[in-house]
Design a protein that fits this description.
alpha+beta; two-stranded antiparallel ribbon; two-stranded antiparallel sheet; 4 strands; about 20% helix; elongated; binds zinc ion
């Protein structure tokens, strides 16, 4: 007999850190993310993304 119970209690909500200001940013806000060297960075606001785009090395 098979006894399978759906264990769906382990939902991980991912949080990213805005490299510009250090704030926690919940994943899923694709409109203010930016791909840099194969990594996806998330930002709290459009202004932070622009600052990162201008000079990514400064924030890494
Ligand atoms: Zn920010």
């Amino acid at each position: 007999m098979e006894h399978s119970s759906a264990a769906s209690s382990g939902i991980i909500s991912r949080v990213f850190i805005d490299p510009v200001c250090g704030m926690n940013v919940p994943a899923g806000r694709r409109e203010i993310s930016f791909d840099y060297q194969g990594c996806n960075y998330y930002f709290c606001a459009e202004a932070c993304r622009r600052a990162f785009q201008k000079d990514p090395v400064k924030y890494l």
